[in-house]
Design a protein that fits this description.
Distance between the termini: 45 Å
Radius of gyration: 28 Å
Helix content: 10-25%
Shape: globular
């Protein structure tokens, strides 16, 4: 469904910038020195060492405050769409880095495969679609692609996203405010103010953002918009650098989010005319997601000696998520899900950083504890198992023909078995780790890279489920009195099948130890050209999963991967062109998948059964081609493949992952844009991003679950002064029609954002 191919690739920018910068018309013009200096001085902190982007071999995409403003970015989902080899899964449910979903790719296991941090605190995956991840008053977003298990630790096999909010100023008071108003009545009001309470010693910064969005999908049954949104994001931050203790720096922050809006994804009907422009839903139950998130962080550092600094980061996070959705999508009260996630997370990190003439690095210790539970309540329909009923009848003396006739007749009376299902799943995860990362200069140009992490995890998982029949059984006499005893027998069998899904409270404790090394080498060929090669091991922790039919908690083991990566960091044309690239190859084994064992529909649990590999590259470029004009672009490519799939003995699963691709893993991701300043204060940005087609399911038949690629073009134009600006912005300018997911059997789909135009104003003082 791609109707436009307008995008900038890294190669295109190199060619265009090279031609522009060497042309006679521009050769005599000086580039924008401030813009070039800002780009050169980008400091990345996601690896817990303050290095410039050009000094870091890890593939890192950085979003700065200037980018957030110029492209009118509001949420973390906007970052997913503009970054090479980073993509949404469906709706706002998650993301993939290099084709790997943040929740894993094999539909098994509970641990994350990618991490998200805000000011040093991890954010749980179930709160990502509305937690403290919006971009107002954010200083920087770093997307770390590739394993971060050595530095980030817990479940960062695919990579991580690090969000850092703005610090208070210790020298002057100032503030920012912004209003965004777009069609469909999406209104955002944002403000921040801060400054020194004690000059050069104690500062404070307060920020707030209020969003009200009418929504796009009108529920004709409930007479409301399914995806209407109200949210409030509050943050307070204090910074202290006491003159009595030179070098000491302490920063404390508190972030409170209250979000009441649509579910993490919203379906629209596809069986109505012009459904992209006439988005409706028909479910009789609400489709909502309510998030209460509280996050506190305390960061303190002190220099112990020349080049040696001690740091401590303490974080606490409480998230309460209430998710409700009508899963059948019809005006009838058939199926619904009502889940509550309540978790508390505490982390403590101690770290020594050293920066010497030849040796630099860090040594740290980490503690992580997450406690909480998932309370699941749902009403679901299970297709009446005619084969199981026929087997039951034959076991009681019926012939094959009689068994087939009776089971089909019964299924005509009860096509589905309605089940009311509730489950309580408390868990506790504790992780302790020692980690280190170092660089040693063998010569002025050749550097050795090394690192390690020893990770010890204890997790305790418990589960209790209750399943009850939630409908009306067929009348035993519907075939006549002669068959009544047999129909009664089948009714009892159906009730027994439902009862099999119930299980008493059971718990299981697991412990894991993982050693995760990293090694590499870096070469500075010139001051502006560096190459590096690294090898790193990563893992995703194991645990226990419930098999409802057998009332068992079944253990499964961790997953492990090895990542081999080369990098290029370069500047050209006196620093006016920056070109960076990374190429990677990863092998992955013991992947966690869900396997069925045939006793009934509830006889399933997680097992280690898959192996895979993936490879690809990212290229990113930035170029200043004239005073006030700069181009930027990126291209990402990844190929994923399950190379083996061996289920344990007794498994009856029919889904075979061998030679299939990861779900939601676009092979190509491209993005780019142009910034321009012209006239007395006029500024403009035009940007575009492309995602190739993806499979939304796994297995040999995944071709049936494919959605096409799409190109989305966005823009912003406005007038700026030193203290205020007015602007107009547009998303999906070409009104590209695209889907993120389609459920063709019930005529529902998750549709991409339509063409949207808005206006905004901001002030700075």
């Amino acid at each position: 469904m791609v109707r436009s191919s307008f995008f900038f690739s890294g190669a295109a920018i190199v060619a265009l910038a090279g031609a522009a910068l060497t042309s006679p018309a521009l050769a005599g013009q000086a580039p924008d020195a401030d813009m070039d200096q800002a780009r050169a001085d980008i400091i990345v902190t996601g690896e817990k060492s303050a290095r410039t982007l050009q000094q870091t071999p890890t593939s890192i995409a950085v979003v700065t405050p200037e980018t957030i403003e110029r492209e009118a970015l509001i949420t973390i989902q906007d970052v997913y769409n503009r970054t090479a080899n980073l993509s949404e899964t469906y709706g706002s449910s998650g993301f993939t880095i290099r084709g790997i979903s943040n929740s894993g790719v094999g539909a098994g296991g509970q641990a994350d495969a990618a991490s998200v941090y805000v000011d040093g605190a991890p954010v749980p995956k179930w709160a990502l679609y509305g937690g403290p991840t919006d971009l107002w008053d954010v200083q920087q977003v770093e997307v770390l692609r590739g394993p971060q298990s050595t530095i980030q630790g817990l479940n960062a096999l695919a990579g991580g996203i690090v969000i850092t909010s703005k610090d208070p100023s210790l020298t002057r008071w100032g503030g920012d405010a912004r209003v965004l108003w777009s069609e469909y009545d999406d209104r955002t009001f944002s403000a921040a103010i801060g400054g020194p309470i004690i000059k050069d010693e104690l500062g404070i910064r307060l920020s707030a953002e209020r969003r009200n969005d009418r929504g796009l999908i009108y529920n004709v049954t409930r007479d409301e918009y399914s995806d209407a949104l109200e949210s409030l994001n509050l943050r307070g931050k204090i910074k202290w650098t006491p003159q009595a203790i030179p070098g000491l720096e302490a920063v404390a922050s508190y972030n409170r989010v209250r979000r009441d809006g649509g579910y993490l994804y919203e379906y629209a009907r596809t069986d109505v005319p012009n459904y992209f422009n006439h988005r409706i839903a028909t479910g009789d139950q609400p489709s909502r997601g309510k998030i209460d998130s509280d996050l506190a962080v305390f960061n303190i550092s002190y220099p112990l000696a020349q080049g040696l600094k001690l740091s401590s980061v303490t974080s606490w996070n409480r998230s309460r998520v209430h998710s409700v959705i009508d899963t059948d999508g019809t005006p009838q009260d058939i199926q619904a899900i009502d889940n509550r996630y309540n978790y508390r997370t505490l982390t403590q990190e101690m770290r020594l950083n050293y920066d010497g003439e030849r040796l630099s690095g860090l040594l740290g210790a980490w503690y992580y504890r997450r406690t909480g539970s998932i309370d699941q309540n749902s009403r679901v329909n299970i297709d009446t198992p005619t084969a199981t009923i026929a087997a039951l009848l034959r076991a009681n003396g019926a012939t094959a023909a009689q068994a087939t006739f009776l089971s089909n007749a019964y299924a005509a009376q009860l096509p589905v078995i309605p089940v009311a299902y509730s489950a309580d799943q408390p868990e506790k995860v504790e992780t302790m780790a020692l980690f280190g990362d170092a660089r040693f200069k063998l010569t002025d140009r050749l550097t050795l890279i090394g690192g390690f992490r020893y990770d010890h995890e204890r997790n305790r998982y418990a589960a209790q489920t209750v399943a009850t029949f939630n409908g009306t059984l067929p009348d035993p006499n519907f075939l006549g009195a002669a068959y009544a005893p047999i129909i009664s027998l089948i009714n009892q069998g159906v009730l027994g099948l439902v009862d099999d899904a119930s299980s008493p409270l059971a718990s299981n404790s697991r412990s894991f130890n993982a050693f995760l090394p990293k090694a590499g080498i870096s070469m500075d060929w010139t001051p502006d050209l560096t190459t590096a090669f690294t090898v790193q091991r990563a893992y995703r922790s194991g645990g226990s999963s419930q098999n409802p039919a057998r009332a068992l908690l079944v253990a499964y083991d961790p997953e492990y991967s090895w990542n081999y990566e080369g990098s290029l960091r370069s500047k050209w044309l006196d620093g006016r062109l920056t070109l960076n690239a990374n190429a990677f190859y990863m092998t992955w084994k013991d992947q966690q998948v869900t396997a069925y064992f045939g006793q009934n529909a509830y006889d399933y649990n997680t097992v280690n059964a898959a192996g895979s590999h993936l490879y690809g590259f990212e290229v990113e470029a930035n170029a200043t081609i004239a005073r006030g004009i700069d181009l930027y672009g990126s291209v990402g490519h990844v190929r994923t493949k399950f190379t083996d799939f061996v289920l344990p003995a007794g498994a009856t699963s029919t889904v075979d992952l061998t030679d299939t691709q990861f779900p939601y893993a676009p092979r190509w991701t491209l993005s780019g844009g142009i910034n321009a300043q012209f006239g007395p204060g006029f500024v403009a940005n035009l940007n575009a991003n492309y995602r190739s087609s993806v499979f939304t399911g796994v297995g040999q038949d995944q071709g049936q679950y494919k959605v096409g690629g799409r190109t989305v073009v966005n823009g912003r134009i406005g007038y700026e002064t030193d203290h205020w600006s007015l602007f107009v912005f547009a998303r999906n300018i070409l009104n590209e029609d695209y889907m993120q997911y389609q459920y063709a059997a019930i005529h529902q789909a998750i549709l991409g954002e339509p063409q949207t135009v808005g206006v905004g104003a901001s002030v700075h003082w």
